[in-house]
């Protein structure tokens, strides 16, 4: 019997946690808090009070943590991940906690990019529960980010008997889209989505977002935009979706639309970065741009002091495009590449290598693209600009004003 994956939204991409923010004066509005009368918040408070009274109640703690993880994504609020961890505090540091806690811990660790620890927990869960669909899906997500496509595909395949066809096909397409099978996987995913009426909104949004990214990589901008908008209609506060659509708008030279999209979404560092990039491209927005730039610098500095590597991709973009610090951008992009290998990770390392006129630094990504058949129009443009190692094309791009 196939069972739904209850934590599906939790193992999908979630942007990095924001660094601590100190307001400049006491009158600054830090956050619009959820209304205490909100039904969801009232329910969470009630569960939290029950757990405070019985902190060792495993079932209650797991249920509350699961709801907090779901809220972290649906509300684009990473603080809920901390609340989830707090709910699991009695078992969090145990080497072998109960399986429900271990799966939830893996989900939280994956969300904050502690991939090695997340995989250890997932492997332990699957050793005892090989039919745990949530564990297989989270494992596939982590392995895809790390670039272990064979193992990620194998994990996705295990889902076929455990969950819906749409979840399985979306998982497989996520891997196939960067391993030379983009066209066929896009057709299959599109057809599967059309046949999956009544799918959960978060699952439908995941599939639509991936389809939008696939169309973007092929240069089908009208189709990509239509899919992004469909996905936003399902999940308007999804941080990953907002970031992907903002990148699309920025690449399409539509900074005003990106500003409008992200104006109320600056709590997440990755979204504030895109907001600043959009402001930078707009006349008459220098004051707002400088304020966003200063805020980003403070957040990234705080992350570095905490030795937090979650932000390295965004920090590399910040250094390259907002600070024009090419050496720092290249170093950050290289460190990020050592951890994760998604298309945006490839792009920032190629962009930083191009700006630094450093073909050698780009070589790992160039080799990766060639070895795995990665299809992406933006990446291919960068590959052409980098050119042969003799530097002839780098010289040409410098004369053309690209560098």
Account of the 3D structure:
With 403 residues, the chain is mainly α. Helix content is 69%, strand content 0%. 44% of the residues are buried.
How are the SSEs placed, and which strands pair?
Layout: H1 8-11, H2 39-53, H3 58-74, H4 79-87, H5 89-92, H6 99-111, H7 115-128, H8 133-146, H9 149-157, H10 165-176, H11 182-194, H12 201-217, H13 221-234, H14 239-251, H15 255-262, H16 269-280, H17 286-305, H18 312-322, H19 326-339, H20 343-356, H21 359-372, H22 377-386, H23 392-399
Question: Residue share in helices?
Answer: 55-70%
Low-confidence stretches: 15-37, 390-403
Largest beta sheet, briefly? none
Order of helices and strands: HHHHHHHHHHHHHHHHHHHHHHH
Tags for this entry?
403 residues, mainly alpha, 23 helices, 69% helix, 0% strand, globular, disordered C terminus
In short:
The chain is mainly alpha-helical and 403 residues long. It has helices at residues 8-11, 39-53, 58-74, 79-87, 89-92, 99-111, 115-128, 133-146, 149-157, 165-176, 182-194, 201-217, 221-234, 239-251, 255-262, 269-280, 286-305, 312-322, 326-339, 343-356, 359-372, 377-386, 392-399.
